[in-house]
Design brief:
With 106 residues, the chain is mainly alpha-helical. The chain is 88% helix and 0% strand. The chain is built from six helices and no strands. The longest helix has 25 residues. The chain is elongated, with a radius of gyration of 16 Å.
C-alpha cells in the first residue's frame, strides 16, 4: 500500500488515484476499532464492504496512473476479501451478539 501510494504520489495526474488511496486507508483504519474494539459485527461488515469497494476503485484509479502501483494493490484486495469472509462468519456464528448490540443502542 505504501509503495503504491509513493509511486502514485510522484506521478502526474494523480489526484483521483490519491483521493481513492486516502479513502481506502481511512476505511482500513476504521474497521479494526469498529470490529474488535466496539465489537460491532454488523457495522464492521458494512465498513468492510465499503473498504472492498474503495480498494477495487483504488486499483482502477492506480492503474490509470501507474501499472505497478495498481498491481501492488491486488493482494490487498484479496486480504480484504478474506477479512470480509471472516467478518461474515463471525456474524453468522454470533447472531445473538450482533442483534443484542443493535437492541442495546435503541
Amino acid at each position: 500500500m505504501s509503495a503504491a501510494g509513493a509511486r502514485t504520489a510522484v506521478s502526474p495526474d494523480n489526484a483521483v488515484a490519491m483521493a481513492m488511496w486516502s479513502l481506502q486507508i481511512a476505511l482500513n483504519g476504521l474497521w479494526t476499532p469498529v470490529f474488535f474494539g466496539l465489537k460491532r459485527i454488523k457495522l464492521g461488515m458494512f465498513v468492510l464492504i465499503a473498504l472492498w469497494l474503495s480498494v477495487a476503485a483504488t486499483i482502477y484509479a492506480l492503474l490509470q496512473v501507474d501499472l505497478i502501483a495498481g498491481l501492488l494493490f491486488i493482494p490487498y484486495l484479496v486480504w480484504v476479501t478474506i477479512a470480509g469472509a471472516l467478518n461474515l462468519s463471525v456474524w453468522r456464528l454470533n447472531p445473538d451478539e450482533a442483534n443484542r448490540r443493535a437492541v442495546v443502542e435503541r
